[in-house]
Amino acid sequence: MNAPHTEEFLTLQEIVAAARARLAPGPWSYLIGGAETETTVRRNRQALDSIAFRPRVLRDVSRLDVSSNFFNKKIRLPVMLAPIGGLESIVAGGAAAAARGAAAFGVPQMLSSVCQPGLEATAAAADTVRVFQLYVRGDDAWVDDHVKRAIDNGYSAFCLTVDVAMYSRRERDLVGRFIKPWRATAPAGSTFQSGLSWDQVKRFKDKHRVPLIIKGIATVEDAEIALQHGVEVIYVSNHGGRQLDHGLGSMTVLPQVVTAVAGRAEVWVDGGFMRGTDVVKAYALGAKTVGLGRLPCLGLAAAGTPGLVRVLEILEDEIRTCLGLLGVTSFAELTPAHVTAAPPVGEHDVFSAFPLLGEPPNR
Q1: Is 5 marked active-site?
Q2: CB 354 within 8 A of CB 16
Q3: Which of 146, 229, 239, 246 is catalytic?
Q4: At what angle do helices 25-32 and 294-326 cross, to 10 degrees?
Q5: The pTM is what?
Q6: In this model, does residue 7 exceed pLDDT 80?
Q7: Structural domains in the chain?
Q8: pLDDT at 186 exceeding the cut of 60
Q9: Confidence class of residue 187 from pLDDT cuts 50, 70 and 90?
Q10: Lowest mean pLDDT among 90-94, 174-178, 225-229, 336-340
Q11: How far apart are CA 47 and CA 45, in angstroms?
Q12: Max CA distance (Å), the chain
């Protein structure tokens, strides 16, 4: 099937529908699925849907600036492509296709260490603002080698993902007998990730000068320990609901962590972000960068690199509309006073942000 012209997409939900039509069952289930009962996936959306806006009016929003900063580099929106393993099963070219989209639009990419074509080739594919995320599959020397390679290839920071001490049971993948490309070649019985501790974080900070991001923080207690170790970025994440089942939604955890961190480090977040309004809610509650996982993948699946760019263009339009209607002219003007708790509406799942998906086309 030929990819549609991206100008045909006027809404994000049209991109979701196109991605569904183009992806094989295995990669589709991998993309949308979570661990076991997928309760955490649903809670990610429920947490976002339980936040309402408090708009201010007559504020002169004729000029809007939706840009942000990322390690002292200006970016077009305060979002980044979150690390997704096995992107090559979603789009030809894998992470290189995503890098080209990120560069074309102007947002950062966080590259997963289990995504092809790998660290060097992805960096060479496009002049992106980029950071590198590592799953620990070797000893300290192996980690140090990846740090050096990342620095040598222009990655601005280094990320350790810490919520994968055990590999979760993702039942959609199990039922469909789908094995991601990197899992098929991963060494059996490796204990490096399960053996990861704060000792390795201390060693990293003692040895390396590159900024460190800890991804997978889900409690105030662990955020405090990260601060004690000098971590520059505390990344609130539950792996998109793919790891621990029955966890809290990321947006439930975010305000608690932001309060505890109190400006001593940057706080980032991901988990269920599908709309421009979602990004605005996170920023209002203290997140400086929002990781987008499934949404960029849907754009890539729908129409390759141009599909990813179109996702970001529509997201930007949604964000501009939201900020203007809230009565602010930039993200810097957002405060917690712009949001409030509210009863969520409807059901909550990975696609509850797109309520028209199940309806027949109006043409």
Answers
A1: no
A2: yes
A3: 239
A4: 40
A5: 0.95
A6: no
A7: 6-341 (3.20.20.70)
A8: no
A9: low
A10: 174-178
A11: 5
A12: 61
Mean pLDDT (the chain) is 94
Strand partners, 53: 339
- Among left, alpha and beta (phi > 0; psi -120 to 50; other), residue 84 is beta
CB 269 within 8 A of CB 282: yes
Q: Report the 3 state secondary structure along the chain.
A: CCCCCHHHCCCHHHHHHHHHHHCCHHHHHHHHCCCCCCHHHHHHHHHHHCEEECCCCCCCCCCCECCEEECCEEECCCEEECCCCCHHHCCCCCHHHHHHHHHHHCCCEEEECCCCCCHHHHHHHCCCCEEEEECCCCCHHHHHHHHHHHHHCCCCCEEEECCCCCCCCCHHHHHHCCCCHHHHHCCCCCCCCCCCCHHHHHHHHHHCCCCEEEEEECCHHHHHHHHHCCCCEEEECCHHHCCCCCCCCHHHHHHHHHHHHCCCCEEEEECCCCCHHHHHHHHHCCCCEEEECHHHHHHHHHHHHHHHHHHHHHHHHHHHHHHHHHCCCEHHHCCHHHEEECCCCCCCCCCCCCCCCCCCCCC
Alpha-carbon gap, residue 285 to 109, rounded angstroms: 23
* 28, 89 Cβ separation under 8 angstroms: no
201: β partners: none
End-to-end CA distance of the chain: give it in Å, rounded: 21
Q: Measuring CA to CA, how many Å separate 2 from each of 13, 159, 210? A: 19, 36, 43
Q: Work out the angle at residue 25's Cα, subtended by the Cα atoms of residues 22 and 31, and round it to the nearest 5 degrees.
A: 85
Residue 1: per-residue pLDDT = 44
- Of 299, 350, 270, which is closest to residue 30 (Cα–Cα)? 350
Structural contact between residues 68 and 78, judged by C-beta atoms closer than 8 angstroms: yes
Q: Measure CA 21 to chain center.
A: 23
Q: Are the C-beta atoms of 205 and 233 separated by less than 8 Å?
A: no
Integer CA distances (angstroms), 83 to 8, 159, 166, in order: 28, 10, 18
